[in-house]
């Protein structure tokens, strides 16, 4: 069996075509977001400067995570927020630690960004343990507001506090309403 390799691509344009389509196909099947009927649109909003981590076996993706970034103002402070997005492992490869491996690589990347204040991901409650293993913090009492007009997000938020300023400001996020923006990543 061919070995599983980890690769990192610094933009959507840098993704080889066969990988790009495997990522977007998995996303279209798994997530029922409003934009997933736009089959030829970019995988992620280019303004968020997405980067991609893939585990491949030959030409096939077995696991994936993307990282995106945007500025968010919260409690009158501007933060550079990095998102962990579209994490998946293809079914036959689940339960072998590959999801954990790709999440660790993407999380290390977030921690190494000089401008990063905060990491933010949206997940389901049953996956809290999966992400906690890579240093993500459950934000039980933070209410995320998304959209125009803003409405409470049904997803479960987890964060990582990267910069010294964000670490000091952590209590300001824990019991707060957090306005993320027009659409989630
Ligand atoms: C969630 C997902 C990425 C996990 O990938 P994976 O490669 O199977 O994960 P790993 O093998 O690295 O699992 C690591 C740990 O997380 C736990 N875990 C994995 N999937 C889980 C799930 N669905 N529910 C609860 N725990 C889970 C595992 O039990 C394991 O814990 P252990 O080390 O104590 O045994 C995979 O199930 C998947 O692609 N799901 C569909 C897409 C999805 O839901 N993505 C997450 C979006 S937020």
In short:
By secondary structure, this protein is α+β, with helices and mostly antiparallel strands.
What strand line-up does the widest sheet have? 1-2-3-4-5-9-6
Terminal-residue CA separation: 35 Å
CATH topology name: Aminopeptidase
Return the CATH architecture: 3-Layer(aba) Sandwich
Overall pLDDT: 96
Largest β sheet strand count, sense and barrel closure: 7 strands, mixed
Q: Please tell me what the overall shape is.
A: globular
Under CATH at level 1, the class stands as Alpha Beta
**Strand-residue proportion:** 35-45%
From N to C, what is the helix and strand string? Answer: EHEEEHEHEEEEHHE
Which molecules other than protein and nucleic acid are bound? coenzyme A
Work out the number of β strands.
10
Number of helices: 5
Helical percentage: 10-25%
The helix-and-strand class reads alpha+beta
Query: Are there runs of 5+ residues with pLDDT below 50, and where?
Result: none
CATH homology group? Gcn5-related N-acetyltransferase (GNAT)
- Total domain count: 1
Describe the structure.
The protein has helices at residues 17-30, 98-112, 128-132, 164-169, 171-174, and strands at residues 4-9, 51-57, 60-74, 77-89, 118-123, 137-138, 143-146, 151-152, 156-161, 177-181. The protein is α+β, with helices and mostly antiparallel strands. The strands form 2 sheets. It has a 7-stranded mixed β-sheet with strand order 1-2-3-4-5-9-6. Strands 8-7-10 form a 3-stranded mixed β-sheet, with no helix packed on it. Strand 4 (77-89), helix 2 and strand 5 form a beta-alpha-beta unit. The N and C termini lie far apart (35 Å). The mean pLDDT is 96. Coenzyme A is lined by residues 30, 63, 87-89, 94-100, 123, 126-127, 129-130.
């Amino acid at each position: 069996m061919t070995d599983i390799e980890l690769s990192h691509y610094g933009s959507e344009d840098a993704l080889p075509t066969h990988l790009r389509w495997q990522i977007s196909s998995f996303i279209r099947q798994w997530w029922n977001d409003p934009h997933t009927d736009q089959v030829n649109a970019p995988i992620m909003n280019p303004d968020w400067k997405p980067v991609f981590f893939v585990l491949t076996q030959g030409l096939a993706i077995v696991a994936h995570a993307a990282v995106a970034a945007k500025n968010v103002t919260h409690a009158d402070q501007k933060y550079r927020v990095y998102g962990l997005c579209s994490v998946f492992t293809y079914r036959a490869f689940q339960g072998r630690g590959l999801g954990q491996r790709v999440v660790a690589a993407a999380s290390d990347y977030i921690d190494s960004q000089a401008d990063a204040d905060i990491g933010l991901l949206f997940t389901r409650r049953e996956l809290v343990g999966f992400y906690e293993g890579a240093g993500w913090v459950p934000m039980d009492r933070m209410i995320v507001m998304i959209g125009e007009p803003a409405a409470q997000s049904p997803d479960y938020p987890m964060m990582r506090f990267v910069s010294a300023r964000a670490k000091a400001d952590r209590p300001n996020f824990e019991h707060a309403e957090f306005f993320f923006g027009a659409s989630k990543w």
